[in-house]
Amino acid sequence: MTAVVDLLHHRNAVDELLRSVSEKTILPRYQTLSEDQIKTKSSPGDLVTIADEEAELHLTAGLKELLPGSAVVGEEAVAADPSVLERLTRPGLTWVIDPIDGTANFVAGKPAFGVIIALMQNGETVMGWIHNPLESKTLWAAQGQGAWVDSQNVTVAMTESPADVSSMTAALYHRAFRSAVSDFGSTTLIGSAAHVYWGVATGTTHVSSFSRLMPWDHAAGVLIHQEAGGHSALLDGTAYKPTEWKHRGVLSAPSREIWNTVRALADESKT
What we know:
about 25% strand; 7-stranded mixed β-sheet
């Protein structure tokens, strides 16, 4: 079994790959897409672009070269062949890729999009990266090593009163919290898990909740948030696992105490 510390020397190589693919493949398509470069997948709002597809191909090739013998689970590969998801449960090392998270924003020419990569070992996330192409910055974490924006350590934002959510900012994408939106100081919906996890890990947002748990959206973000000092768990209180994507509902908060406070606001009929 490869130790996490043994994998850390690959961090810079992944950073360089993220920047290279962003600069050569993603950014040249930003605000320049033509209609024939945009397609729909499962629904009219589920979009994929030529940039998503090309970026995933380049990232897949680069990551497999970095760790020979590793498997890759990419969002677009799964869209083409759902059986690719079965690779998540294989022993050994597996990369999970979201080539452009927030594709609808990317298509609309809005800046809230990013690239997400997670590295799993025997079904458990051990490293994660969220890259912001427009700012050329990377939020990353390794199990037991903390969370960082490039070389600067980051932490979640704590509150004076864990029982008072009126001072908190929340990104609430789970319908169980729809009736609790007015309880928070402010709420934000930006259409990108990459940006949401960046916010809760670096302290610009306190709380986030999601219903759909596809691993490319959450595997890296949950690890990063936890390494930044936060507490993330499924709505039933059990630990999040990227291999169990059929669960519905993950909640992230700065601490277990705040998590419990927010969890109590959920409409149980919608969990």
